[in-house]
Amino acid sequence: MTTPKEDDGSPKFGRLLIVLILAVLLCAGLTWLMGNVFPNFPG
């Protein structure tokens, strides 16, 4: 999967970082939502 033109990996890393942050926020939001909708969710 090597591309002939490498842009120092910066755009790919930035996109990966954004996706990672969105995934973390999504998981945190889902946990908060489940905790509010179902108070006994973890147990």
TrEMBL record:
Domain of life: Bacteria
Keywords annotated in UniProt: Membrane, Transmembrane, Transmembrane helix
Transmembrane segments: 12-34
Name of the protein in its database record: Heme/copper-type cytochrome/quinol oxidase subunit 4
